[in-house]
Predict the structure.
Amino acid sequence: MSEKRARVAIVEDDPILREELTRVLSLASDLELAGAADCLAAGRALILQPIEVLLIDLALPDGSGIDLIREARTRQALFKIIVISVFGDARSVVQAIEAGADGYLLKGADPVEAASAIRSVLDGGAPISPAVASHILARIRPQAQAGAPVLSEREIAVLTDLAKGFRYKEVARLQGISPNTVGDHVKSIYRKLAVNSRSEAVFEAVQAGLINLKD
């Protein structure tokens, strides 16, 4: 009996990229296309159906993808959201993450990277293109303060690995600990940083100078 495949929806107005992403999903044994839309209005209808992951562009012909991200989170939709955008500037990235995005990829990369990002985000990761992370770090000055939350060395290592897109099992292997222990560290990180998602934890830790994604 085959395992259930994760349903992925795409909101992207570039027909070439939309077709490439559709092809990648069709070749993945663990993923399937739930539907594709080329504008914000069609995207609103698309996310009403059961899906596990939404791939979304920010620059849509009838509005910003950030609006759809906010709407999904306002409705407390539980699916994961990965932005795929040509915009890698700090403002766009921060707005998307604050709206509720779980990952952020830049256009121009191999579409196969999207499949890896989908698997990562489903496993609790926060996939972010290295160029995006570097762009943020170049523009956001670390604001570590005396009263900032203090993460242990292990928590910093775990969060850094998660920020790089590694899954829980991969982090466990890299750190020489069990996946359950990784989960315990993540809960502690959330509590200390007062956040509810990987992407928020990464953003807050970068701002506070607790992790350095350039390494």
Observations:
- Confidence is low (pLDDT under 50) at residues 140-146.
- Residues 179-193 form the longest helix (15 residues).
- Residues 145 and 208 are 7 Å apart (CA to CA).
- The first strand starts at residue 6 and ends at 11.
